[in-house]
């Protein structure tokens, strides 16, 4: 007999015999009727856990990580409002079930069973994954990536306060809501979680409103690794800026009372709190996990003897709300009902094709209030003397700063956040003057934690803001890339497009900085970004393109709810000249605020048919330098600037190289895993002309005189072009 069957038989036997575990008497504000309702939610959660294992055994279900032992979370749901956004731990079925009782026309048993069966009718994920979640219940679905949902919970809580000061068009969180975020004791140790706790404390320490309730469900073990006894209390009881509450999660009366007090503190004080709930874990981690292989049997049995449902039966008896015989009948009836419903759920359709699975990778477009561009009078007031300078050629960094100003004038929901973006104006001055123009609420100087920066953006996006976070250097993204992969990109996928977090992430990156920083400030790897489904990656090569592409990126995020990364080549920020000092060949005038470069449109310079150079970013600049030497050799060259690195603009690229006799790909990313690999594959499939590539070496970037030694140069591009022209002669 497996442990789930043992726990079930123990419950039947002990309730029938009146053999209930000892504990404190029922106390606090939970009334009898609500207590019985919570017990019903607990029974349904337990029945669903048991049914998930039966479904898996029959080949009809595909998920068995259960909530058994954590059924006390139903009392937490009852202490909150159904409009409080809840970012849930994967063991919180009882929470979702109890919240369903607060909202009309809900059927949690049917919904969760459809999810177990991976049915395409599953109302939250459409059969893509077993996740807790519901749009009607304000429960965004969470992935199982450990603790990765905590940073965005901080962001969502911040967004509630920000929306009170300026409510975005698409805001949907009530002004008096609090954000609830639950997780396990093992996850509390993860660096992502620790960063979120620290960010919440750092924010609260400055008296910034942050209505956030963290909830640690402490069952004392993570899969097979035990949490040291007392560790959570010792670690969290005395943190500055984070009020600590604790309760026994086996007691629904106590849990409700303490959770209600914690929620009231957060709601009235607008400060974060930490609710520590002691629970047990029944059955092991998941269906295939046998806890007796790593825990003494006596210890497993002791946990089982503390079954929270047994405690609830005792408490309800002592309260006079429900006698054990009636409690046992509810339990048995619930199991029978779940089995009947499951028989129907397993017959419902499932996803069949790749298109079925991928349908929600791209979020749905949304209607937005029409804008006619920034108000001319306000624009003149904000820009001041900069307005006259816009007709003169300028460097990229200045054009980007003006673009951001116009975007923030036009769209009040645009908010920027990052290290040094406000008062300093960014490491390279791109955001200079913006905090003075728009204030610290819209130009947020964050602490130095990339996970928290992206979490802030994700959370704010879920309350209608249009975040434009900045990561100072591309190399710094790797500290936080899971916030894009595991959270931002997957939210529409796992919610069937019901939840989105549109944003434009600006990253300064790529190489060619002279004498500065080495590989931490010069990173030429974008593989992690190009590998994320649904993410748009844009990279301009000159200031005018940067302005027009950034406007398109904001349109994509605002109207189409897309996740966009805008990669800004650091070395081109200050670039003035192309061939010789003083020629001003790489500066551009500021495009009119209405001008955009449409998503997927590539740039084509020249009409030479001897050679097409396909490149991007710094490669576009270097290829223009090399073209002079190639033209002197009578090699007629056109230069194609990709602009959009992911998804690859295949059709536009194929049109752009039409008629060219040879194609040279110039790629400043690495030879293995770089952009050129995808381009080579595409052109081999799309055309039949000689093809070559020149790329960066598989190396990190050095500081000092060798800063560009591992990457393409104008001379190496010209040499590669000449070698390609010799092929086939």
Description:
The protein is an alpha/beta fold and 729 residues long. The chain contains 27 helices and 19 strands. The strands form 4 sheets. The chain has a 7-stranded mixed sheet with strand order 9-8-10-11-13-12-17, with helices on both faces. The protein has a 5-stranded parallel sheet with strand order 1-2-3-7-6, sandwiched between helices. α6 packs across α18, α18 runs parallel beside α20 and α24 crosses α27. The longest helix is centred in the first third of the chain and has 26 residues. The termini are far apart. The mean pLDDT is 95.
Give the N-terminus to C-terminus distance in angstroms. Answer: 77 Å
Largest beta sheet: strand ordering: 9-8-10-11-13-12-17
Q: Give me the number of helical elements.
A: 27
How does the overall form come out from the CA principal axes?
elongated
What do the pLDDT scores average to?
Answer: 95
Write the layout of secondary structure elements.
Layout: H1 3-17, H2 32-57, H3 73-79, E1 86-87, H4 93-100, H5 108-116, H6 150-165, E2 179-184, H7 191-205, E3 212-218, E4 221-222, E5 225-226, H8 231-236, E6 243-248, H9 252-269, E7 273-278, H10 297-305, H11 308-319, H12 324-345, H13 354-358, H14 376-383, H15 386-389, H16 396-410, E8 414-418, H17 434-438, E9 443-445, H18 450-461, E10 466-471, H19 474-477, H20 482-488, H21 490-494, E11 503-509, H22 527-530, E12 536-538, H23 543-560, E13 563-569, E14 603-605, E15 611-615, H24 618-632, E16 637-641, E17 644-646, H25 650-656, E18 663-670, H26 675-686, E19 691-696, H27 714-726
Parallel strand pairs: 1-2, 2-3, 3-7, 6-7, 8-9, 8-10, 10-11, 11-13, 12-13, 15-16, 15-18, 18-19
Antiparallel strand pairs: 4-5, 12-17, 14-16
